[in-house]
């Protein structure tokens, strides 16, 4: 072989070898492609329920998830792993925290903290607590109807309860019975405490419900979706063993329709809850903008049937229209979707109604709207606590229309000089809640003096016009 041929072959072999060497740009592209695929895959799988955990969460994220207690002070503020801690200092509700391998056992109404090997470790103390996870522990009338839940650490053979459904987020266990079904209590005893207790987890929590009801889950599904990314679990009827990295059992309660920012790790207030309701119900195309408004100020009258009914409602509607309002009468029924209620009230300027549970829908009013509560005889204090004070905290303009004796049906039932009519406060002193309920809440209707009401509605109309000019 000549030297020229040998040199040509060496040159060809060298070129071939260079062709098999990895190119830097190709490697970079390949690495980028793999990273993108992993990122997309993690986003795709995160849409599944908490039942499946494809990727182990980084330790920092797990610590955030397991920050079960939103309070930075008081009992259980420093919760160690593999422990149960209960805070029973609040007048309204108890709450317990379980950190570690949590497993449900519905047939025995139990939540177990699994401690493998604890039987061989004398330094690990076994614990047992009981709790009724409802926000009215002071209410003797309902207490016996609230099931007791047992929280126990387990070891040895007893700890061999196998996981059938594994979650990668903590559980929030609460009772949805009691006065649930009365829309005021649905929010005051349930939705608002749920928000207080879970908001700091940013929907990374599974709701485990005692006395689960399909109608409740359906009615409040849009709100529940703002509190948890996962479908609620029916504790009593789902007999599978659910496993969690931790659990909150019970709900925090701050007062009547109240959220105390000073007690929240994120300084949340009732106005933050109102934003959450807006996110739940406001049409997506309107988020960030104002809902369409009628040409003239809109007055919504929340109508009642049965007790505390407005007997001259037709006259009141005509009065509102005469003043210049566009008047809509809202008759809440259990089957009415909350989204429809929201759409009606979020677009109105003034809401008016006689004291009662349905006034809770003032939560759907926009800040600055005017709320008129018609207060029947004998319920001044109840009306102020339930709706008057919360309305101010919510940023509403609050007006109280106190019914005169001659505007109450009690005037004609008992007579002008009877203490029931003449001095309700003295009559009620020392008599208890049942008398208030039977005589004043369930025993009277109202017929409003349209001349007197005219002044109130005229001021409301002028206020609404003024507020509209600022938008």
TrEMBL record:
It is a single-pass type II membrane protein. It is found in: Golgi apparatus membrane. Keywords: Glycoprotein, Glycosyltransferase, Transferase. One of its GO terms (cellular component) is Golgi membrane. Residues 1-17 have a biased composition (Polar residues). Residues 1-20 are annotated as: Disordered. Pathway: Glycan metabolism. It holds the Pfam family Glyco_transf_61. The keyword ATP-binding does not apply. Residues 268-370 form the Glycosyltransferase 61 catalytic domain. It comes from the Eukaryota. GO terms for molecular function: pentosyltransferase activity. The keyword Glycosyltransferase applies. This is Glycosyltransferase 61 catalytic domain-containing protein. It comes from Ensete ventricosum (Abyssinian banana). The lineage of its organism: Eukaryota, Viridiplantae, Streptophyta, Embryophyta, Tracheophyta.
């Amino acid at each position: 072989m000549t030297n020229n041929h040998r040199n040509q072959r060496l040159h060809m072999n060298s070129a071939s070898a260079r062709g098999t060497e990895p190119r830097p740009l190709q490697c970079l592209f390949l690495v980028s492609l793999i990273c993108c695929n992993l990122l997309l895959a993690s986003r795709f799988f995160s849409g599944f329920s908490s039942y499946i955990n494809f990727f182990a969460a980084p330790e920092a994220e797990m610590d955030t998830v397991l920050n079960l207690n939103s309070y930075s002070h008081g009992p259980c503020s420093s919760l160690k792993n593999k422990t149960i801690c209960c805070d029973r200092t609040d007048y309204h509700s108890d709450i317990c925290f379980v950190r570690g391998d949590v497993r449900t056992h519905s047939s025995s109404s139990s939540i177990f903290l699994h401690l493998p090997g604890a039987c061989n470790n004398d330094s690990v103390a076994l614990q047992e607590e009981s709790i009724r996870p409802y926000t009215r522990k002071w209410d003797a009338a309902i207490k016996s109807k609230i099931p007791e839940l047992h929280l126990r650490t387990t070891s040895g053979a007893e700890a061999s309860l196998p996981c059938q459904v594994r979650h990668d987020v903590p559980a929030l266990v609460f009772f949805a019975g009691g006065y649930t079904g009365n829309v005021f209590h649905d929010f005051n005893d349930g939705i608002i405490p749920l928000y207080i207790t879970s908001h700091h987890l940013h929907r990374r929590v599974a709701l485990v419900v005692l006395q689960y009801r399909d109608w409740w889950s359906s009615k409040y599904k849009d709100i529940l979706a703002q509190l948890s990314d996962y479908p609620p679990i029916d504790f009593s009827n789902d007999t599978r063993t659910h496993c969690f990295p931790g659990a909150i059992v019970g709900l925090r309660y701050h007062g009547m329709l109240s959220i105390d920012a000073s007690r929240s790790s994120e300084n949340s207030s009732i106005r933050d809850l109102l934003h959450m309701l807006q996110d739940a119900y406001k049409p997506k195309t309107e988020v960030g903008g104002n809902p369409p408004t009628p040409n003239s100020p809109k007055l919504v009258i929340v109508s009642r049937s049965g007790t505390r009914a407005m007997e001259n409602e037709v006259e009141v509607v005509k009065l509102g229209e005469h003043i210049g309002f566009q008047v809509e009468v809202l008759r809440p029924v259990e089957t009415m979707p909350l989204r429809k209620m929201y759409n009606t009230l979020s677009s109105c300027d003034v809401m008016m109604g006689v004291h009662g549970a349905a006034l809770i829908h003032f939560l759907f009013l926009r800040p600055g709207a005017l709320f008129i509560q018609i207060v029947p005889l004998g319920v001044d204090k109840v009306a102020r606590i339930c709706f008057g004070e919360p309305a101010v905290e919510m940023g509403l303009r609050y007006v109280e229309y106190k019914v005169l004796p001659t505007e109450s049906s009690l005037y004609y039932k008992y007579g002008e000089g009877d203490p029931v009519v003449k001095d309700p406060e003295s009559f009620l002193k020392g008599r208890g809640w049942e008398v208030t309920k039977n005589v004043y809440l369930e025993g009277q209707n109202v017929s409003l003096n349209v001349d007197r009401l005219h002044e109130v509605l005229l001021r409301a109309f002028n206020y609404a016009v003024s507020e509209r000019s600022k938008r």
